[in-house]
Structures are given as structure tokens and as C-alpha cells.
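Posted in: Structural Biology > Protein-Ligand Complexes

Title: Requesting predicted complex, flavin-adenine dinucleotide in pocket

I'd be grateful if someone could produce the C-alpha cells for the following input. Sequence and ligand are given below.
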Amino acid sequence: MTREQHLEQLKTGQTFDLLIIGGGATGCGVALDAVTRGLKVALIEKNDFAEGTSSRSTKLVHGGVRYLEAAIKKLDRVQYHLVKDGLKERYLLLKNAPHLSNRLPLVTPLYRWIDVPYVFAGLKLYDFLSGKRHIGHSRLLSRKQALRRFPMLKPAGLKAGVLYYDGQFHDARMALSLALTAECHGASISNHVAVTMLLKEEGQISGAELTDSLTGESWPLHARGVINATGPFADSIRKMDNPAASEIISASTGIHIVLDKRFAPADTGLMIPETDDGRVLFVLPWEDHALIGTTDEPAAITEHPRPLEEEIDYLLRHVTRYFNLKVERSDIKATWSGLRPLVRDPEAVDTASLARDHVIEVSTDGLLTIAGGKWTTYREMAMDTIDQALISFRLETPNPGCQTKHLPILGGANYHAHGDQALVKKYGFAADIAAYLHRTYGDQAEQVARLTSPHKAIRLVKDHPILEAEVIYAVRYEMAERVIDVLARRTPLARLDIAAARTAAPRVLEIMAKELSWDLQRCKDERQITEQLLSEGL
Ligand SMILES: Cc1cc2nc3c(=O)[nH]c(=O)nc-3n(C[C@H](O)[C@H](O)[C@H](O)COP(=O)(O)OP(=O)(O)OC[C@H]3O[C@@H](n4cnc5c(N)ncnc54)[C@H](O)[C@@H]3O)c2cc1C
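-- Reply #1 --
Done. Output follows.
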């Protein structure tokens, strides 16, 4: 369905069971859980799906090696369960969205003998906690083996390494795919629609006023229950309900930088176990590039957080310390910053020590807020949220139990590991294009492929496998409404290579203008907004 058709459904005046505010990992996951239990669901997102934190993560599907260390050192049960739940959910995400995720071996380099038994035992415990859902066995690497797996490592002083496994995924497309899977099950969804006010009847929340961010049009939507899944912005919705509500979100920023593929082998990541300030740092292969992150600093809540120069220096300094290659500021192809929606703990000394657990709160007037957690556990968070919503809003459905444990995400149901070869054979695509389409769209890749026929797989920009046909697909089937929706979230171009995204922008605008019948003024506005976002940071 198109966005227009969804908007029509959202404007009919019908009463939904649930209105879900926020189209990130949390909101999209909650919408899918709710609709597959048979509830009538509306999901709205102020900007684009995953435009907030959910497209700005390290893209790891993990239990969290660092949380395990904290669990053991501080005998902390919350952190321990966080790791266990994360490992269970890691397995399910890899299974249900096989096209958007993969298993990734990671090397931990060790420069002191004393660290070898400690790190090895810790990672063995990490394997053990995943039980029968393990995705690979950790093992010790000799110095030579560590250098063979990750040749960019500085050899001087290297004693050994430990190889372990975690998952990796495409966060922006995962959120979109959750929303589109919810759509397939009957949810009414829209991006670029904001909640501007909560509606109440007899002191209880009965819906919200919605505003189309693209046209400015507002209308009321009635729902038996309203769920606030706005991540870092959760307090702004809580204050619409009760202006005196005390804040529960404490945001911290994390930035990433992207370098070209010289800086990471295609099939192995690096986990630096201890930075200057006691954090972990990852260097990961991602979409034929090297992704490096992240930082963790308390931050103000803003819609488009930007990486600071000192944060970029921090990452470059650590890479330089561990790498045999010279890394310079000019090697950076893209950077971005994201806000962690951590649930505030007045006792916490710093944001890194806050547990990444989720919290569900129901206000006196019936606003259900789900906050905190991490991408990996979105499904479990959604399950807990809807379990609570059924009780709090007295909702009735023939399927009250959670249905998502074995539910394939759009593109995953008929995905086969070597499906890219069929695309090469049938459409004559170059191998990189076929592999990219296959892992990006899964069993939907042929739908994109069919749109290429008159154009013969024209690349949007050279040296990237991203196609012009994807712009058409994104508009027709994935609710892309702005040029930046295509450049930063339907495709990964702007996250990988800002210069390439700038080159591609005029052609993306041209295709979108034709598909969406934009007038000259809209084209002018889009050109300006896109250029501003690409030059200032997304
Ligand atoms: C640097 C960094 C690295 C991370 N790495 C990982 C990782 O590797 N693995 C992992 O599991 N987790 C990771 N996380 C955590 C994970 O990304 C977040 O927990 C998750 O994305 C939060 O999703 P969310 O939906 O709660 O918030 P968001 O993605 O921010 O979504 C909230 C949405 O609500 C919308 N919204 C706000 N106000 C309104 C309104 N009035 N009306 C309508 N919509 C509104 C916003 O526009 C936004 O899109 C990382 C986080 C950061 C910051």
C-alpha cells in the first residue's frame, strides 16, 4: 500500500485498538507484535522509519560482551539477564531476518599475557550462556592466527587473540521491514506523521492529534490504548500526558566513522576490549566498508545529533594505536551520531554504567511508555509491551499470546543463502549488484530486479552496487517520501560515503519527482534540505 492509502485509513475516524507513536526499532517491533495478535493497529513516525537512533547503531546483534563483564565483576543480576536475553534474541533475529543479518566472527587482540585467560574464559562463558542457541564456538588464536584473521592489526607486542561470534544486521532496513511486515498483517502505518497532542476523555487517554509533517494537515485519531515508543523523545510525549511528569530518559551519544574496505577484512571484525576510558570499540566490515564505533557521552536530546571533532579524534586515535595502517581524517567517508535512550538512574555515575534494560510505565491517565533496551531485544520488548497493553487497556483478541518468535520478517520467508546466483543468471546482474540486492531485499529482490528491465541495472553512482531502480521501488513500495529517506535509510549510501550520496542526490530527486509528481517548489525545497543534511551530518 502507498503512504496515501495508509493516510486514508488513518483518517476514517475509526477507533483503533492501539496507536503506537514512534517508528524506530521499538515502535515497529511493538506494531508487529500487536497486529499479529489480531489487534487493530496504527503506527506513526514523525520523520522517516528509523530516522532516529535505530539507523545509527553499531549494527551488532549481541548479548553484550561488556555487560557480561559488568555482570560478573559486580555480581549484577540485571546485567546477567540482559546478556542472556540478548543471546536468545540474537538467535531469533538471525533466523527470522536471514537476509538482513549475518553471523560475524570477531577477533579480540591481546597485548598482555595476563589478559589471555581472562578474556578467553569470559568469551567461553558468553558462548555457554547462549546454550543451544549458540552461533559459533570461541577459540584462542596464536599471534600468527590473529594477524592472519585481521591483517591490519599492529604486530608489535601482540601476544595472542580470541575469536568469538556475534551477529550483525542492517538496522535501518530492519526497522522498515518490521513496519512493512506489520503492514502485511493489516496495520495502518505512516512515516512523516507526528503526534502533536494527546486526546483525553473523562481523564483517560483516548487517542491523539496527528499532524502530517509534509503538508501540515492535522486530524484526530481515536484508540483504546496509546503506546509511547519514541526512544530518546519519550519524555516529550510523557509531558503531553502530564506536564509535571519527572523525566526518565537520560541520553548518551555514540558516534561512528566509516572508512574504506582497506581497514577491515571482508569477513571478520575486531573488538578492542579496553579503550582509554574503559569501553570497548569495534572495527567491523559493513557493506564493503569498515565501520568503527562507538563513543558514549552524556548528551542533550536533539533530532539530528552531530559527531564532535573530539569524538572523531578519539576513534581515530584508537584505530591508529591498534592498526598497522596509517589512518587519517581524510580517510573518513562518512560519520554519524546517535542517541541512546537510556532509562535514568539517579544513582548512576556515568551513562556507560546504566543498564541497557527496558522499562514499561503506565501513567494514571493511561499512557503506556516503553523505553530503554537495545536493538537486539526489540522483539522481547515488544512482547512485554503488548502483554502489558492487553491488561492495561482491557483489549480482547482471539490470539492473546505473542506470535513473533518464529515469524519471518518481510524478505526472509523464502530466502536462500545462494539466491544471488539466480539473479545473476536471470537478469545478468554483476556479482556485486546481485549479492547486494539479495542481502538487502531477501525474497523480494526480484521485485526490484523487475524494475530494472528498461534501465538495465543502472548504478546510482559508480563503485556502489545501489541501483536507480531501487529509488522507484522505495517510492512505490517502501514509503520513501524524501530524497534523504532513499539515500540514508532505503539504501545505505549516505551512511557509507557522503561524497557518493551527494553525487547521487540529483538523480534520486529526478526519479522521485517523476514518481511523486513533485512541482518545482517541492523539488527546490528537497534539493535544499538534502544538501543541508548531507553537508552538516545526517
Ligand atoms: C551509538 C549507538 C550504538 C548502538 N549499537 C547497538 C548495537 O550494536 N546493537 C544493539 O542491539 N543496540 C544498539 N544500540 C541501541 C539501539 O540502537 C537503540 O536501543 C534503539 O535503536 C532504540 O530504538 P527506539 O525505537 O526506542 O528509538 P528511536 O530509533 O530513536 O525511535 C524513536 C522514534 O520516535 C519518533 N518520534 C519522536 N517523537 C515523535 C512524535 N511526537 N510523533 C511521532 N513520532 C515521534 C522519532 O522520530 C524516532 O524515529 C545503539 C545505540 C547507539 C546510540
